[in-house]
Amino acid sequence: MKKIISIFILAIFLFQPLSASSQELILPERETIEAYNPELNIDELIEALPEGASLEDPYLWLVNRDNRITDPTEMPLAYTGGGIPYSAEIVEPFEALITGAELDGHYLYAVSGYRSVAQQAANFEARLNQNMSEGLDYDTAYYYTDMFVAPADASEHSTGLAIDLLGYDWDQYGGDLHQAYGQYPSAIWLAEEGDEYGFIVRYLDGKQDITGYEYEPWHFRYVGAEHAQFMNDYNLVLEEYLALIQMRDEAQSE
Ligand SMILES: [Zn+2]
């Protein structure tokens, strides 16, 4: 019986779906983090990391140009009031975020949430075709498309943990996904208070070379409150936070 149980456990272990953490993560070097955060002491930061912070945490799933999605990402979905899909795993914190914002007078709506790899591929294709229809040759059109649209397998929206949010305060002045939104009261509230609910501004201004994306004050990513608060306190992006965890792990295994 014991043997059967252990074979069963082994089978679960072998056949559980691969998560991003089972691949080798490509993360910024220590020197890069030092260069971008000259006011921080990296050793002290590593010391201060939340004890449970782990590269295996599914809410710290990293998707970017260096860390692509290798498996399909079907998942149970929930829908915002406006019908935008996102991971059913984060209904509670997402609804708490929306309610918390309202209590402070900020009314938010989701613009975009979960996208499958296939949908992202279609988005990329559509923008590429649009650029070419405006007279650009293929290579130039591809260059500009790639600058603004994530490749099919490199969009964080495919994790279901990323939601583009705007406030109605900004809606009156345009309502587009524009960096100027970052100056509006609802965006400032989200950037400052969102961490309490587990959400971070994923693409910070000044960290473009690390994230691979321009500043996006509307793109929020769920990572869990403890991690989000740490990142907000020290103005770190997810890539940097994961690199710190990796450095801690490597130091501990020495
Ligand atoms: Zn987004």
List keywords for this structure.
two-stranded antiparallel sheet; binds zinc ion; alpha+beta; 11 helices; 254 residues; Muramoyl-pentapeptide Carboxypeptidase, domain 2
Q: How would you summarize what this structure contains?
A:
The chain has 254 residues and is of the alpha+beta class.
Topology:
Blueprint: H1 2-15, H2 30-36, H3 42-48, E1 77-79, E2 85-87, H4 91-103, E3 108-112, H5 117-133, H6 138-148, E4 162-167, H7 168-171, H8 185-193, E5 199-201, H9 208-211, E6 219-222, H10 225-234, H11 238-253
Antiparallel strand pairs: 1-2, 3-4, 4-6, 5-6
The structure holds zinc ion (ZN).
Task: Write structural notes for this entry.
There is one protein chain. With 254 residues, the chain is of the alpha+beta class. The protein has one domain (2-115, 155-253): 2-Layer Sandwich (Muramoyl-pentapeptide Carboxypeptidase, domain 2). Helix content is 44%, strand content 9%. The protein contains eleven helices and six strands. The strands form two sheets. The protein has a four-stranded antiparallel beta sheet. A two-stranded antiparallel sheet has the order 1-2. Strand 1 (77-79) and strand 2 form a beta hairpin. It is globular and about 55 Å long. Residues 1-21 have low confidence and may be disordered. It binds zinc ion. Residues 112, 157, 162, 164, 219 line the site of zinc ion (ZN).
